[in-house]
Amino acid sequence: MNSVASPLTPTARGVPASAPAKPVAAPFSVRIATGLIGILLAVLVSGFNENVTKFAMPDIRGAMGLSYDQSTWLLATYAATSVTAMAFAPWCAATFTLRRFTLLAMGVFTLLGLLSPFAPNYEALLVLRVFQGFAGGALPPMLMSAALRFLPPGIKLYGLGGYALTATFGPSFGLPLAAWCVEYLGWQYAFWQIIPASLIAMACIAWGLPRDPLKLERLKQFNWRGVLLGMPALIMIVLGLEQGERLDWFNDQLIRLLIGGGVALFVLFLSNEWSAPVPFFNIQMLRNRNLTHALITLGGVLFVLLGVIIVPANFLAEVQGYRPLQTTPVLLWVAVPQLLALPLVVALLNNRVVDCRLVLAVGLGLLALACLIGSHVTQAWHREDFYLIQMIMIFAQPMAVVPLLMLSTGGLQPADGPFASAWFNTVKGFAAVAASSALETVTLHRLHFHSTMLVDRYGSNPSVTAGIAPQHMAQRLHEQAVVLTSSDLYLCLGAVAVLLIALIPILPTRIFPPRAAS
């Protein structure tokens, strides 16, 4: 039994049959499964690449002689092009076939990663990162499209559970991988770590996925206006969010131009998509309450998941002086057990008697509990003190992500896959950027607030600081400000999780897994 509320299909909204036509059915087999594993590996590698280069950027900056300003633009442009590609890749895959398009994106992505350390100057490296962002961002939508198309109903949730690894396992594994590559292999491997897994993924995809015929007739109805409006809109908004805090937000003319112009273009883009014969975004799908709820909640969940990675990593580095490699056990405590916890959560959701909304509420509740425990952080905390929080996160993360995938894809037909994939992946990519920007802004503001308050307090009590060297006192004040800021951030993250729980009785409707076990 499928969802009681299904999104409109392209035919129902009057889209011509060529947009996108239902693919030829292929029986599920070991060969198809191999192709799906290849796409999953490709998507994970794409996520690792962004996180590894972000965490390893200080080493890259030092080795290549880059300034801090230049390094921020390298990260920002990669994120902007990656998010933009997520919006338009599903249409390309439906036109040029899933197999061909994925292999092309993976090949370009791998080649540019190989060339990046040899860039002769900053400008060349920036160009390489821009195009690698496009190629890497095109990969995540392919996994959802393939899972919806190829997996039989009884195991479809397991395929979507594999997609959930990109939101749970991938980010937590990025810092450990970056630390290991830089520490033992050299800064170049922050770029090259993608190559072995990429080659394996391409081999699996080339052998496993069916050789569908090209659908070049779709080019006659290509939505040029959507590309010309949507692509610069997304790039401008993401660049504005990435650089906003560093350039003092709307006090800077460039940020006003990027965000203001990007939002204006995006409004025009959505207006165009509403009436376009072959849209990139089927806006009418938002009438589905489950999809709308999943997209809203996804943004909040990504904010929390990103926070529980960044807060302990920053705390241990600033207060205890940990190197990235020393912090990795904290994140691995969450990342590695995901490989076991996630299938268990999927098996639970694949049972007809289980309401995925209840599982989602429990997952969000566990996130809130972990953040509440973290809010009691003190200056005496070390790596081991975070393990209880991480143990809760092992099940909290998949219980908060997999039900969202189930809600957003329930009742979809294979032909709806590209539209759902465009919505979900673009929101996922954009929400990750917005969450990172929001966390950076809140962190800096709270850090400044606590630093000012501590200086005022100790300044009015000279006896407390008597006999302490000024540099030692400044270090102690900074560490205490970091502790208080970390506590505030945990409380903020927990509050977001609680607010998301409050949406569950209002928006989503009950949905059943496809051909669920009794």
Which H/E pattern describes the elements?
HHHHHHHHHHHHHHHHHHH
Architecture (CATH level 2) name: Up-down Bundle
CATH level-3 fold name: Growth Hormone, Chain: A
Q: What percent of the residues sit in helical stretches (DSSP H or I)?
A: over 70%
What count of domains describes the coordinates?
Answer: 1
Question: What does this protein look like?
Answer:
The protein is mainly alpha-helical. The chain has a single domain, classed as MFS general substrate transporter like domains (Growth Hormone, Chain: A). The chain contains 19 helices and no strands. The longest helix is centred in the last third of the chain and has 43 residues.
Short description:
By secondary structure, this protein is an all-alpha fold.
Label this structure with key terms.
518 residues; mainly alpha; 73% helix
Chain-wise SSE layout:
Elements: H1 30-55, H2 57-64, H3 68-96, H4 98-115, H5 122-137, H6 140-150, H7 156-185, H8 189-192, H9 195-208, H10 224-244, H11 253-275, H12 289-318, H13 324-335, H14 338-349, H15 356-374, H16 387-409, H17 417-459, H18 462-465, H19 470-503
